[in-house]
Input
Amino acid sequence: MARAAVSPQAPYQRIRQHLLAPIQSGAWPPGHRLPSESELVARFGVARMTVGRALRELQNEGHITRVAGVGSFVAEPRPQSTLLQIASIASEIRERGHEHRCDVLVQRRERAEPEVAHALGLRAGASVFHARCLHHENGVPVQLEERWVNPKAAPQFLKQDFGVLTPSEYLVRHVAFDEIEHVVDAVRPTSEQARLLAMAADDPCLLLTRRTWHQGTPVTWVRCLHPGARYRLGSRFTPRGKPNTD
Output
């Protein structure tokens, strides 16, 4: 009997499998640096875009992380942040035994743009506190935090050293809240956001938008942007009572 013809693998698939095999076997542990794109181009005799496709597929599948200007690395298991409570990214990173660093990019009082004013229940142009922080895990950026705070709810907010105590940690410890809203969207970063997060501009992000209230008054509105290949959002909970089956 004649054997069925076997279609040869496409070049990008050969490169993908060449890189995936040592990852799956454990020969390349999490954090291991992959060969550079130039090395792979020379080794396989293909165009750079072919290597890029193989690396993008591995990244989208969660096997590797790519840091712009640095290189590609075997991915750590993606950490998951809870959606049922206000979780401190700094605490989550430290609990994993990793190093957290917070770069404070903005910390000022400013006039509220219409979107910010609406989120905080204020008039457009009202005074608000604004903080922008870039959070790193073991030196790799994992979250860009953009936060606005109602000055009446947290009058001491701008006096804090957010390199020591992050905005989230400060507010949870010192400002009461009794209601939380979470919304998660899949988005593309702006060119500036992609630069800060050391990611490609066409890679997807997870955007967590959170608002908190105290006795009906909005306290803070925050938008946390995470590279989708480095982070995930989820929750696990036990519902109270039984579902209504009537």
Q: What stands out?
A: The chain has two domains: 11-74, 80-232. The mean pLDDT is 86.
